[in-house]
Amino acid sequence: xxxxxxxxxxxxxxxxxIALKQAIENSLPNGIELKWNSAIQAHIDILFINHYxxxxxxxxxxxxxxxTTQYLCIEYNAAYSGKMVSNKLFYPFEKSYDLQHWFxxxxxxxxxPTIVADKSKFLTKNIQEMFIARNGFLRxxxxxxxxxxxxxxxxxxxxxxxxxxxxxxTHAWLQTYAKNSLVNMIQDQFKIEDLKIWLWNHLYPxxxxxxxxxxxxxxxxxxxxxxxxxxxxxxxxxxxxSALFSRGAEVNYVANYLNCSLQQIQAFIVLTQLLGMxxxxxxxxxxxxxxHQIISSKSTGVFQGFIRKLRNKLGI
Length: 316
Prior knowledge:
Elements: E1 3-10, H1 14-26, E2 32-37, E3 46-50, H2 57-65, E4 70-76, E5 84-85, E6 88-91, H3 97-107, H4 114-130, E7 137-142, E8 145-151, E9 156-159, E10 174-177, H5 180-186, E11 191-194, H6 195-203, E12 220-223, H7 232-246, E13 249-250, H8 251-257, H9 262-274, E14 278-281, H10 297-314
Parallel strand pairs: 1-2, 1-3, 3-4, 4-6
Antiparallel strand pairs: 5-6, 7-8, 7-10, 8-9, 9-11, 12-13, 12-14
């Protein structure tokens, strides 16, 4: 018997809504069926929201009053057709593998497809190779096209300016040693970025694919290096997550305090660990944990003031 989910869509005209609903139904995993409601009602399992409407009082009040309702922002962008970045779904599309995976992750007990699980392990191994200095230059390619060249000794990356955004978890890509002739040829043509910054901004937007099983909700971590976020939509929440972990924090505490999903915080830790940007600490060393659940209003005010100063300084 199929699992029936109640869904609603907000902020699209009738023609666009009909087309997108059909595309969403084409992307459902086996065992899930959608029942569309014409308006926001008391019982909605999932809400598809035009991203322009997300910050309206009506939507915000509904989400606050119904914390179990899942939601996705929808945005028109043909270049990213069917892709998901964080909780944003880009349309138009006929079928979206990203969306199919999201439904499986949030509404079924279906195990992730082997290809995705294998790619997560494959990715972890390859990233570790990127930070071994004796590996010299590494070449990353996709469909025989060079995406980037990694300089493991300086932790810099030379990026092909013609490369569009790539999802390392779902796209077929290959990492090999780069020949000196190739390195000499591309150095003046490819743009240079810090390797950790580049990896973070290409991996974290797809955090739903990251394997988080080994990160306990009760474990505590301290941030050693703050992620530098290029995506403006992520900057505010990343700033808050980073600020808490910079003092040492429990994973579950951060998720509850910031009203984020536990998966998002666990994925944050997985990546900071993988990139050498955090360290695990004892609960006694953590400033924010279940043992410190009761925070004085003065402490909360200091933290919020700190966040405001950072946001003003960074212009976000």
